[in-house]
Amino acid sequence: MKNPKISALLITYNEEKNIEEALKSVDFADEIIVLDSYSTDKTIEIIKTKFPAVKLYQNKFEDFTKQRNLCLSYANFEWILFLDADERVTPALKAEILQEIENPKAKDAYYFKRKFFFMGEPVHYSGTQNDKNIRLFKKSVGSYDENKRVHEGLQNLNNPGTLKNYLLHFSFDSYQAYYHKVIHYAQLKAKDLREKNVPYLFVKQISKSIFNFFKMYILKLGILDGKKGIILSYLSALSSFKTYEYLKEEYI
Fold first, then answer.
1. Per-residue confidence at 207, pLDDT binned at 50, 70, 90?
2. Alpha carbon distance 233, 217 (integer Å)
3. Does one domain contain both 217 and 126?
4. Residue 11 near residue 71 (C-beta atoms within 8 A)
């Protein structure tokens, strides 16, 4: 493919703290598209005043998969770079992206390894040492699995590659922000489980919550992250507990 072009995509809701740096980090893309879920903060104002070339759309949020697939439908170019507003493409990663898509033997999709930050500080363990997500792929081969409302993933991809340089992930600047995300995700995951007719079992709710804490804190070495490791392990356990709590409500 000669002169391959990139569409950089973001879905947003109340990202006034992140949107400017996120958009700057993908300014090398041939087009930037933002699909916003009717933000009530200054997200839209920042985009319109500081990034007039960005193509801005709005759609009421139902779940992450529907938002991503809708945003994907607006893209005009073959290569898709999908970024979360709390992620940043570094100069080294940018160079690797541009080099890779010009490779005649380029794969159809690529994982990005992510360097995780919590409350402004890097997290080295707690499962983040193996964290990676597909962020670069060809539009012709990728779409998001509509059977998952959260932790959405691309389907029909064959043997994705992995880029060497890290994507920076400034996940949350406060405990409260992370807590609210955990609750939101738990509600969506509960709906997925209900649609699959997964029964609510109290024993499973407790056992999965305990195991998730143990897995993140011990097996994934959260203990080496100090206080951050304890917090992240607790929130992982809370995510499981709340998911089954909401699942129980789905059956009422």
1. very high
2. 6
3. no
4. yes
Residue 17 to residues 4, 22, 41, 67, 173, Cα–Cα distance (Å): 31, 10, 10, 21, 10
Q: How far is CA 174 from the centre of its chain?
A: 18
**For position 148, what pLDDT does the model report?**
62
Name, in order, each residue with C-beta under 8 angstroms of 131's C-beta and a sequence gap of 6 or more: 113, 114, 116, 169
- Output the pTM of the full model: 0.86
Percent of the chain topping pLDDT 70: 96
Task: Determine the pLDDT at residue 3.
Answer: 83
- CATH no. for residue 88? 3.90.550.10
Bridge partner residues of 207 (DSSP) = none
For residues 246, 233, 155 and 19, what is the CA-based torsion angle, rounded to 10 degrees? 90
Segments forming the whole domain that contains residue 89: 6-172
Q: What gap in Å lies between CA 240 and CA 243, rounded to an integer? A: 5
The full DSSP string for 139-208 is TTT-EE-TT-SSS--EES--S-EEEEEEEEEEEESSHHHHHHHHHHHHHHHHHHHHHTTPPP-HHHHHHH
Q: Is residue 189 part of a domain?
A: yes
Q: CA torsion, points 10, 16, 22, 27, in degrees to nearest 10?
A: 90
What's the whole-number average pLDDT of the chain?
Answer: 93
